[in-house]
Every structure is written in C-alpha cells, then in structure tokens.
Amino acid sequence: MLKNREGILTLIAEIKQGLGDLELISKSIVEVGKKIKVINKKEKRYYLESVALELHNFYSGCERIFEKIAGDLNGGVPTTHDWHKRILQNMMIDIPKIDHL
After folding, report:
1. What is the model's pLDDT at position 78?
2. Which of 7, 10, 40, 83 is disulfide-compatible with 78, CB 3.0–4.6 A?
3. Could you give the C-alpha distances from 12 to 6, 48, 74, 91, in angstroms and in order?
4. CB of 64 within 8 A of CB of 18?
5. CA distances from residue 32 to 20, 45, 58, 60 in whole angstroms, order as listed
6. How far apart are CA 37 and CA 40, in angstroms?
7. pTM, rounded to two decimals
C-alpha cells in the first residue's frame, strides 16, 4: 500500500506511461480499420487478425494498469479464479476524493 507522496507520484507516472501505450495501440487499431475498408476479401482476414491482436493488447494494457493500481492502493490483485472480473469491478467502484495528499 502506498503511504507517501513519492509512491503516489510514481504510480501516477506509471499509469500515464501505460495510457500512452494504450494511445499507440488505439491509433494502430484505427489505421488497420481504415485499411480493412479498401482491401480485397482475401487480405481482409489478416487485417482482422491484426485488429484482434491489437484489441487483446489493448485489454492487456488496461489490465496491467489496473494491476498496478490494485497492488499499490488496494492491497493487491484479487487471487481468486475470477480475478480478471473482480479487478474490473474494483476499478469501477466510486471512491470519494482524498484531499490530504
């Protein structure tokens, strides 16, 4: 659990870096999406597989950010068989603003 300002600032920097990675993946998905509209049917399969891989990378990137948050602020990542679902649910919980940081 983070207890100091430096730790929180480090977490913020790591999250920003992860969001930058997600932005690059998003741009790649958009570019491939544009190409899919103008290519022939035979090649389309490969572009669709590329989009599927990029979507997987995007989700994995989100999950890595959530794992950092859970590990540093929530005491750790859930360890049950449904941890993927639980970490997403935990990230959606509305937490009141903390003013003393």
Report:
1. 84
2. 83
3. 10, 34, 15, 15
4. yes
5. 19, 12, 14, 19
6. 9
7. 0.79
Res 74 pLDDT > 90: no
Element holding 2 (H helix, E strand): none
Please write the tens of the pLDDT for every residue from 79-88: 899 988 988 8
Instruction: In whole angstroms, give the CA distance from residue 1 to residue 74.
Output: 7
Environment class of residue 45 by beta-carbon count within 10 Å: exposed (0-12), middle (13-18) or buried (19+)?
exposed
Contact 77, 70 (CB under 8 A): yes
Calpha distance 15→44 (Å, rounded): 34
Q: Where are the domains of the chain?
A: 5-92
